[in-house]
Amino acid sequence: MRTRTTTVAVAAAERYAFLDLTDDLRRAVKDAGVTEGAVIAFCPHTTCALLLNEWEDGALEDFRRSLVSLVPHDGVYYAHDDFSIRTQNLHPDERRNGHAHVKAMLLSASSHAIPVVDGEPALGTWQRLILFEMDDPKDRTVSFHVFGA
Q1: Is the pLDDT of residue 141 over 90?
Q2: How far apart are CA 17 and CA 83, in angstroms?
Q3: How many CB atoms lie within 10 A of CB 114?
Q4: Which among 59, 72, 80, 82 could bridge 98 via Cys, Cβ 3.0 to 4.6 Å?
Q5: Is the pLDDT of residue 93 over 90?
C-alpha cells in the first residue's frame, strides 16, 4: 500500500470567500501514484470549512447568504467575543470571530474522505472541493492524505 500526505497553503481574499481546491486534490492523488484507494482532505482550522458541492455562482451565493442570515456576524452577542468573561484559548491578537466558530460548528466540515478510482478522485459530475472562509482572511493549510494501491 502507498501513502502520501501533501499540504497546500491557501488564503481567501475576503470573509465568506470560496476557494476551489479540486485541482490541488487531483494533483495530490496523481503525485501519490495511487490508482485505487482513498484521499482524505483535512483542514485544521476552526473558522473555515471544506465543502463538496457544485461550483456555480448562484448556488455559492445562496449558500453564503443563507449561512450569514442564519448566523449573522454583526449585531449579535457571542460569548466567545466577550473578553471580559472569556478565560480560555486567548492570544495577543485575538479576534472577535464567534460568528465564524458557530458557522463552522454547524457545518462540521473539517474533512472529507473521497474514493480514488482509476487514479482520480471519484467526485460526482458537478462536485468540487471548496474551502469556505468564514473569518477575516488569513493563511490556511489543507492536507491531502492519499492511500491505496
Answers
A1: yes
A2: 27
A3: 20
A4: 80
A5: no
Question: Max CA-CA distance within the chain?
Answer: 55
Nearest to 101 by CA among 84, 130, 76: 76
Distance of CA 30 to the CA centre of its chain: 21
Q: What domains can be seen in the chain, in order of their start residue?
A: 2-86+95-148 (2.60.120.460)
Q: Which three cell numbers stand for residue 115?
A: 474514493
Angle in degrees, CA 52, 54, 60, rounded to 5: 100
Place of cell 492524505: 145
Instruction: Record the pTM.
Output: 0.94
**Residue written as grid cell 500526505:** 5
Counted residue by residue, the chain has a size of: 149
The overall average pLDDT reported for the chain is 96
Cα torsion 89, 48, 64, 90 to 10°: value is: 10
